[in-house]
UniProtKB/TrEMBL annotation:
ATP binds at residues 14, 205-209, 279-281, 327-331. The active site is at residue 145. This is Acetate kinase. It comes from Methylomonas lenta. Mg(2+). Can also accept Mn(2+). It is found in: Cytoplasm. GO terms for biological process: acetate metabolic process; acetyl-CoA biosynthetic process. Its EC number is 2.7.2.1.
Length: 401
């Protein structure tokens, strides 16, 4: 069985093709700058060198045509061999607690949640609609970032707001990056040699978007992102936790509109707001060159993570492992050291040599005297989507949380 996974953004589509018999990646790629004068298409068939093409791709329909053309030409697959197409959908609200086969009703329900994720769901939906139009004879499955967090207790997901806003408008904590947190939790359980249902973990997905999740006996019980992916940690361009009255202050003193404030907090805040850069590699270079704003951005970024680690220790009481993942979590040696510094009282202590070169795809960087394991795990969100899509297609959906 072969499954294609599509992750459609507003101007890009990521894709991966998997052979599910051994969960092997056959082909992976990304088309960026859709709608611009020249789109960038990078892809690689496993075992071959990466290919890079630049050509006009004006819309998602043409992008998907390009993807299916590459699939056929590569020899990795053709349309007849595809058993399923799995789609990443950021927001499933309270309705979708597990993957679901896509039909007209499902697409309408995903569209109804656009107010909850106006920056994400429209792009995800566009990819679904185009794929259905072109490949409607192939079963397609939606896998939701929010699904893993449906096990949060009500005292963790409710806000201190009037109950009517929750009951009538769906205002609550949903959480995101669920496919990643779920995947790395399972990898940690495999590494530790214990059933996930017997483990307490703190998983940190750290990339341009970042979130932390407290996992108790294998189930998400709290997570840093909220009703939208804006809440929680300071991120590449998102502010994370701030005083909500700042919105009113900006509106009154600078006459900013709600759209302007939303754009500011989502796209021009976080590390970018503090130092003018959101790529962590560039921020490190700036900091090493003496840029004080870059140094401050790094300090703020690490400090916010450490605060959440402490908070989730209090929530869980006992923690078996702290798990770093995501582009930054997997590669930033300094950040891992900084986040764990001074936490020996919690049983966390990093081995500097191990931290410099953690074993992949899952490796331990904690010292031999630590009572809490610290792991670095490569996340594979696309593979997790394929796994969940296969279970849905086969009718073996089992809520793992």
């Amino acid at each position: 069985m072969k499954i294609l996974v599509l992750n459609a953004g507003s101007s890009s589509i990521k894709y991966s093709l998997f052979a599910m018999s051994d969960q092997r990646t056959l082909l992976t790629g990304i088309i960026e700058r859709i709608g611009e004068s020249l789109a960038l298409h990078r892809y690689r068939v496993t075992g071959n060198e990466a290919q890079i093409d630049e050509s006009p791709i004006n819309n998602h329909k043409l992008a998907l045509q390009e993807i299916f053309s590459v699939l056929k030409a590569s020899g990795a697959s053709n349309n007849a061999e595809l058993a399923c197409i799995g789609h990443r959908v950021v927001h499933g609200g309270e309705l979708f607690k597990q993957p679901v086969l896509i039909n007209a009703q499902v697409t309408q329900q995903i569209a109804s949640m656009i107010p909850l994720a106006p920056l994400h769901n429209p792009a995800n939906l566009l990819g679904i609609q185009e794929a259905l139009q072109q490949m409607g004879d192939i079963p397609q499955v939606a896998v939701f970032d929010t699904a893993f967090h449906h096990s949060l207790p009500n005292y963790a997901y409710r806000y201190g707001l009037p109950s009517s806003l929750y009951k009538e408008q769906g205002v609550r904590r949903y959480g995101f990056h669920g496919t990643s947190h779920n995947y790395v939790a399972k990898q940690a359980a495999q590494y530790l040699g214990k059933p996930l249902a017997e483990l307490n973990l703190i998983t940190l997905h750290l990339g341009n978007g970042a979130s932390v999740t407290a996992i108790e006996n294998g189930r998400s019980v709290d997570t840093s992102m909220g009703m939208t992916p804006l809440e929680g940690l300071m991120m590449g361009t998102r502010c994370g936790d701030i005083d909500p009255a700042i919105h009113f202050y900006l509106s009154r003193t600078l006459d900013m509109s709600m759209d302007d404030i939303e754009n500011l907090l989502n796209k021009n805040s976080g590390c970018k707001g503090v130092c003018g850069e959101n790529d962590m590699r560039s921020i490190h270079q700036m900091a090493e060159a003496g840029d004080e704003n870059a140094q401050l951005a790094l300090a703020m970024y690490a400090y916010r993570i450490k605060k959440y680690i402490g908070a989730y220790f209090a929530v869980l009481g006992h923690v078996d492992a702290l798990v770093f993942t995501g582009g930054i979590g997997e590669h930033d040696v300094w950040l891992r050291q900084q986040c764990c510094a001074g936490l020996t009282a919690f049983g966390i202590q990093i081995d500097s040599d191990k931290n410099q070169n953690p074993t992949h795809p899952c490796g331990e960087i904690s010292s031999s005297s630590a009572t809490v394991k610290v792991l670095v795990t490569v996340t594979q969100e696309e593979l997790e989507i394929a796994i969940q899509a296969e279970a849905c297609l086969m009718g073996t959906n089992k809520t793992p949380f």
